């Protein structure tokens, strides 16, 4: 169906996103394929007047945790999205460019695609009524290059459309015997649409996937949605295939859920030094709430509570105004090992 909308695209070659605003070079020339972000500085990638919707984002170049992506909707003072670029795309272990098989791990889902070589793609729709602004901060100590294109359409947006949000959390390690918080402090009407998670084992060679996922809706004192284990929440079962016959975790990447990458050379049964990248997007089954939402994930194995490293990004839509996001850790604290 042909819609009454106008496509826009912001990129290094067309940083203002206007019609006919791309390169003035001739055929087979590159004038400005990348933007250099100096150490300690922030650049604006998108500044668009609404109404409209962002439909696709692609990034490559330096895409590690030194880069912080922020998104602001309709001139709200503080960001609705704030996360390291790598973690936002489910790649919190950004210094590990190959998995245990020596390959680039591929996240092949409906909402995000991480292509070989770290081509980051997002297909979350991000509507706005008045204005959309996306920035990238370089918290590293050297200049870095970023390749990007962010596309969407100027069009009418329903008044009840929710605004896209995402927030970063980490505990290195999780406090033993205490649950890990994926997200809390959400206030307002909306729907939770997913989480990406990185887990790092801390030398305890036992099962790590018995932690239960709990979702608390509105003012409910106890969880309304309660999964029986970590591998169950992320669509797997029985230790992600690490059973007594195969004795090796198996990766998988589906439309909405998966464990798409494992780092660590040792394939020993429950090897203590492996790292895992997982995701679950609630697109077919969004979790709706009226005024509050909170999600937790226990860090447990067969032998009880553990002390592994957990890092996550939660994604949801809600009405504005929204509450400020939890402040990010320092760049040094954020480094994944």
From TrEMBL:
Superkingdom of the organism of origin: Bacteria
Record InterPro entries: DUF2961
Record-linked Pfam families: DUF2961
Designated name of the protein: DUF2961 domain-containing protein
Organism: Ligilactobacillus ruminis
């Amino acid at each position: 169906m042909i819609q009454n909308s106008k496509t826009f695209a912001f990129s290094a070659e067309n940083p203002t996103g206007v019609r006919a605003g791309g390169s003035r070079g001739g055929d087979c020339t590159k004038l400005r394929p990348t933007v250099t972000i100096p150490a300690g500085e922030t650049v604006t990638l998108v500044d668009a007047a609404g109404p409209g919707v962002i439909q696709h984002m692609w990034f490559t170049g330096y895409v590690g945790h030194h880069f912080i992506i922020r998104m602001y909707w309709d001139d709200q003072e503080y960001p609705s999205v704030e996360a390291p670029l790598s973690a936002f795309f489910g790649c919190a272990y950004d210094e590990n460019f190959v998995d245990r098989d020596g390959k680039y791990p591929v996240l092949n889902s409906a909402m995000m695609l991480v292509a070989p070589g770290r081509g980051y793609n997002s297909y979350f729709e991000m509507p706005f009524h008045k204005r959309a602004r996306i920035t990238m901060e370089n918290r590293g100590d050297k200049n870095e290059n970023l390749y990007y294109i962010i596309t969407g359409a100027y069009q009418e947006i329903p008044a009840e459309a929710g605004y896209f949000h995402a927030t970063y959390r980490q505990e290195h390690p999780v406090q033993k015997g205490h649950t890990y918080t994926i997200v809390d402090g959400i206030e307002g009407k909306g729907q939770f649409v997913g989480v990406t998670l990185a887990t790092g084992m801390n030398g305890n060679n036992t099962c790590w996937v018995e932690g239960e996922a709990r979702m608390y809706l509105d003012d409910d004192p106890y969880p309304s949605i309660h999964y029986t284990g970590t591998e169950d929440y992320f669509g797997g079962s029985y230790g992600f295939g690490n059973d007594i016959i195969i004795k090796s975790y198996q990766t998988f990447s589906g439309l909405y859920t998966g464990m798409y990458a494992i780092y660590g050379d040792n394939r020993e049964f429950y090897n203590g030094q492996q790292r895992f990248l997982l995701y679950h997007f609630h697109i077919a089954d969004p979790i709706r709430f009226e005024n509050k939402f909170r999600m937790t994930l226990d860090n447990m194995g067969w032998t009880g509570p553990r002390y592994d490293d957990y890092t996550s990004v939660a994604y949801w839509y809600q009405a504005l105004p929204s509450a400020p996001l939890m402040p990010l850790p320092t760049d040094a604290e954020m480094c994944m090992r």
